[in-house]
Known about the structure:
The radius of gyration is 52 Å and the shape is rod-shaped. A four-stranded antiparallel β-sheet has the order 1-2-4-3, with helices on one face. Strand 1 (119-126) and strand 2 form a beta hairpin. The protein is of the alpha+beta class. The protein contains three helices and four strands, in the order ααββαββ. It folds into two domains: 25-102; 114-182, Alpha-Beta Plaits (2-Layer Sandwich). It is 59% helix and 22% strand.
Amino acid sequence: MIKINLLPKKEIKKAGKKIEIKLSGEIVKKLAIPVGLTLIVLVAILVYCEITKSALEKDIQLQKRTIEGLQKKIQEVKKFEAMNKDIEAKAKLIENLKKMQSAPVSILSIVVKRLPDGVWLTALTFDNTITVEGIGFSNLNVVQFVDNLKATPELQDVYLVESQQTEFEKQAVYKFTVKFKLKV
């Protein structure tokens, strides 16, 4: 496309010149107050923002110090909880030991009361189960002993592990092993 300029040369020169605006003193006075107030408000807003920012930064630092203090207290609480668990475990162990201290005497008392004539004990061991080893003159005596133990309300899971004929001082006897648990 072709451009054609139809304006005369004078008007082209006028169009190219910059327009200068002359401000009178009265217009400057009228604009100075709003511009000044705007600048004052902007400066006040900036000052307020800076004050708020510094206050928030101080608050953040204070909160960080508080968190660090609380973290230390949390660690102390965890140590105390661990110590408390340890003490509770030791107390429970002591209770169990006290119970186990009296358990052999009571178990032996229960077993001896159920012992028929012709049967005597050679060993008594305690683990999760109680194992009684002994000797009887006959297999019937051993069976009677096991039946007596089964009838005891304080005992459970009573069973004869083995009964084997052997010789003791040139006499035929039955060596036996019985296992049971104490009812809790």
